[in-house]
Amino acid sequence: MAPPREEPGPVDLPLGKVIGKRWKLIQKLGQGGCGAVYMVQDVNGKGKAALKAESNFVAGGSVLKLEAQILQRMSGKKYVAQLFHAGRKERYCYMVMTLLGDSLERVFRRCHKEFTVSTQVRLGIHILFGIKQLHEVGYVHRDIKPANLALGRKGRETKVVHLLDFGLAREYITVTNGKEILIPLFTYYFRGTTRYCSANTHTRSEQGRPDDLWSMLYVLAEMRGPLPWNHLREKKEVGLAKAATSDVRLLAKCPIQMLEIPKHLRELGYYSRPDYLLIYNTLNGVMNTYGYKLMDPYDWETLPSDSALKPISPSIFSKIRTIEDNSGEKTLEVVSPARGPKGSNKNSRYPEPTGEEKEDESVKYTPEDFAKNEIGF
């Protein structure tokens, strides 16, 4: 039997195509490797969403099934992107999820300056909460970086940072014979992004929850200026630089209170549950000291209007001809159980996208959001 053929490039779908009798492709948002992301319109309603498609012939297999499983586990959680649909066709598989706004990487480039402490600590609280939400469903991300952190598009969600791209995520909890933490393995493979991964990652050691938080800390430190290893390119050199960099140097332009974060992280091991409340209290303490509010404008929201990214013109949607594509449709099976009521259609496990603006209420966190231990470890 001949091995399945491999497609060297990303899935390229024509605008106007309707996937799964429902999702009309209206704009290509980006691509990389063997995957592509599109903005889609729900033909049965007013809502827009993001569709991520990936070839079924990727060497090593598609990661969309993993991503869909993780999003489904986080379904209904506060300030988390939602999965609307997942399916598989002959050439590619896809998932449809909440359409988000700019990544932090993009707004970093647009600002061309160091962020204020106000923006830094508020983003830190959102990133911390997103990471905790992922950890509470049994996964570590292993690739926290500005490109994988995105703002919402509407209402209060524009203030919230959402985690993206779970392709390198790993389950650290098993439920096969009762819930327990998986034994760490020594791995020869490097997982993550050199600039932002923890020093522990450079030793090829298994990554746990603390490693995601080290990456978060590096992202926050970079908001106030270049990281000490920014000029280095080789993984080995970067790893040595991270191990040799003192906390004071790393956070030299940050509030002194933030030194409590690396101090805590250095006390943790693979099996340790981070004290998310301690980190939240540290960042929130800076806000209280200087009178910052979560809903204050971010630095990029105060830029001159000509610096802002131009919105997409609604007129382009009406010019796209519809192309139906309903062949070979299968549900992309995920481990999590269906959430819909008994007897409902196959997609009822997923929430529905909406075209209406969310009520523009304030984003709020409580100490309990960071203190409660939902997973039990």
Short description:
The chain is α+β, with helices and mostly antiparallel strands and 377 residues long.
Structure explained in plain terms:
There is one protein chain. The protein is of the alpha+beta class and 377 residues long. The protein folds into 2 domains: 20-98, Phosphorylase Kinase, domain 1; 102-301, Transferase(Phosphotransferase) domain 1 (Transferase(Phosphotransferase), domain 1, Orthogonal Bundle), CATH 1.10.510.10. The chain is built from 10 helices and 14 strands. It has helices at 64-73, 104-111, 117-136, 209-222, 235-244, 247-250, 260-265, 276-290, 315-318, 367-371; strands at residues 17-19, 23-32, 35-42, 48-55, 83-88, 92-97, 139-140, 149-151, 161-163, 170-171, 173-174, 180-181, 323-325, 330-331. An 8-stranded mixed beta sheet has the order 13-1-2-3-4-6-5-14, with helices on one face. Strands 7-10 form a two-stranded antiparallel ribbon. A hairpin with a 5-residue loop joins strand 11 (173-174) and strand 12 (180-181). Helix 3 (117-136) packs antiparallel against helix 4 and helix 3 packs antiparallel against helix 8 (276-290). The protein is globular, with a radius of gyration of 21 Å. The relative contact order is 0.17. Residues 328-377 are annotated as: Disordered. InterPro entries: CK1_Ser-Thr_kinase, Kinase-like_dom_sf, Prot_kinase_dom. Residues 361-377 have a biased composition (Basic and acidic residues).
